[in-house]
Backbone:
């Protein structure tokens, strides 16, 4: 009897346990269903906004933990994505090149160094496609890197160079600018050329300094201080604030920069950036001038590498400058730097396809897309940064990419490179109230009539939500950006 009674007690406990689990599971499913329905209803109400009438848009929101879509609308349709293209380019770099990848720019003496300090030969700057040769990581000192090279040459005992300063940009081709970019904007900083040897984001910094001199030509602060540019300044100071307006343009294929218009005498100093033609020669010229300012005589010229320059080489490495892929990806996404993205694209081509060209870089992106499960006919890619309107991706492609990178060994580097709500990058002024600040990690994107926001939301329940919101052909940018932000806020409200 005791044995039978024991069995009955155990059986009863099992039944109670199973019933309890079933009730809990049922309640959880019901709660999840309620949350999802609440989410869908709130987003749908938001999308009834009149500003979205006749606006093509697509949305994909996915829970990584549950591997389920939480909301979707036209998520398989193709849209222009603007700078959301950088998500694909930087992810491909992390996947194919990894976190240990380094750019290395070397300074080499090609020739015999005499005891007197004379180098009978050339100095070669061998480029690796590094986009980081600027003041960005040197307290804003634009010339910090070439100055360190000059110091290394002087330390080696070289005081005279009989030959040239040669820029070896051969790791990339010399097709500097993507043919699909807007022709009327090609001198702007965001259209900076891609090159195997680059300097200062391949731009010159020009600041107009206000002065109480109406009718006089404005005073300029040009950085770096170099003879590489020919600046034709016809901009004058004006007393009339309403007349304040000017332009800076570079004549295509040259380094002639034209400045015209009027500058109000009481305005604050205004910094502008104009990109350069032939970036490798730009760096070689600046380096030659720095050497000469530091007492090193250079008998030859600054020039590009030519066939046969290494034929009878007797090379001695003088110094080397390195930078990391982590630095590069951080700048690319946090600051939406087109130049950086294009450098990464050709770097992928050079190292994965042995060809530092746009086409080779795009081929790597196609390979990566195939790895994600998307054949070539399901999207369009024309560059690495998103400036071309010919780039077409779907929200589903982007959320699939973000899901893949969330589980990737190098995924944290992508996450950390994304702008954070209310804190930095393109989101520093968006979603900045306390309940949303630092909750959204996403890449912004904007070109004419295209706005995109895609990224991650880390929930308090341990889930990660990935989302992509792509909007095209709208009339009011601020309205669609507010809708994007409100969708993110709803996600935070429902899952935190």
Residues:
């Amino acid at each position: 009897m005791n044995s039978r009674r024991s069995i009955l007690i155990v059986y009863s406990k099992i039944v109670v346990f199973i019933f309890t689990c079933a009730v809990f599971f049922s309640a959880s499913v019901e709660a999840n269903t309620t949350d999802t329905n609440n989410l869908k209803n709130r987003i749908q109400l938001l999308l009834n906004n009149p500003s979205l009438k006749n606006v093509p848009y697509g949305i994909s929101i996915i829970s990584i933990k549950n591997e389920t879509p939480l909301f979707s609308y036209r998520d398989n349709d193709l849209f222009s994505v603007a700078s959301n293209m950088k998500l694909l380019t930087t992810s491909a770099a992390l996947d194919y090149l990894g976190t240990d990848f380094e750019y290395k720019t070397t300074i080499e003496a090609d020739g015999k160094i005499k005891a007197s300090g004379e180098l009978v030969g050339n100095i070669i700057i061998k480029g690796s496609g590094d986009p980081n040769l600027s003041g960005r990581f040197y307290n804003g000192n634009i010339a910090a890197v070439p100055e360190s090279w000059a110091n290394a040459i002087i330390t080696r005992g070289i005081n005279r160079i009989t030959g040239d300063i040669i820029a070896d940009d051969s790791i990339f081709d010399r097709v500097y600018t993507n043919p699909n970019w807007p022709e009327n904007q090609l001198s702007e900083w965001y259209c900076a050329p891609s090159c195997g040897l680059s300097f200062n984001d391949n731009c010159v910094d020009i600041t107009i300094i206000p002065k109480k001199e109406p009718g006089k030509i404005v005073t300029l602060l040009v950085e770096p201080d170099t003879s590489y540019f020919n600046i034709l300044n016809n901009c004058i100071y004006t007393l009339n604030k309403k007349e304040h307006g000017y332009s800076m343009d570079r004549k295509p294929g040259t380094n002639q920069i034209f400045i015209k218009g009027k500058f109000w005498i009481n305005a604050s100093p205004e910094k502008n950036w104009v990109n350069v033609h032939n970036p490798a020669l730009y760096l070689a010229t600046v380096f030659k001038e720095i050497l000469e300012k530091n007492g090193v005589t250079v008998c030859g010229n600054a020039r590009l590498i030519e066939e046969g320059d290494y034929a009878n080489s007797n090379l001695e490495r003088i110094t080397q400058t390195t930078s990391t892929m982590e630095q590069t990806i951080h700048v690319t996404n946090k600051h939406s730097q087109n130049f950086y993205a294009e450098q990464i694209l050709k770097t992928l081509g050079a190292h994965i396809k042995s060809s530092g060209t746009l086409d080779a870089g795009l081929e790597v992106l196609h390979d990566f897309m195939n790895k994600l499960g998307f054949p070539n006919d399901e999207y369009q890619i024309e560059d690495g940064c998103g400036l071309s309107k010919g780039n077409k991706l779907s929200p589903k492609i982007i959320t699939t990419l973000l899901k893949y990178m969330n589980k990737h060994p190098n995924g944290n580097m992508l996450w950390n490179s994304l702008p954070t709500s209310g804190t930095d990058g393109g989101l520093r002024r968006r979603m900045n109230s306390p309940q949303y600040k630092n909750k959204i990690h996403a890449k912004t994107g904007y070109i004419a009539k295209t706005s995109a926001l895609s990224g991650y939301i880390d929930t308090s329940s341990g889930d990660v939500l990935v989302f992509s919101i792509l909007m095209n052909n709208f009339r009011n940018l601020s309205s669609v950006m507010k809708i994007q932000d409100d969708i993110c806020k709803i996600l935070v409200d429902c899952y935190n």
About this structure: Residues 99 and 325 are 6 Å apart (CA to CA). The two ends are 54 Å apart (CA to CA).
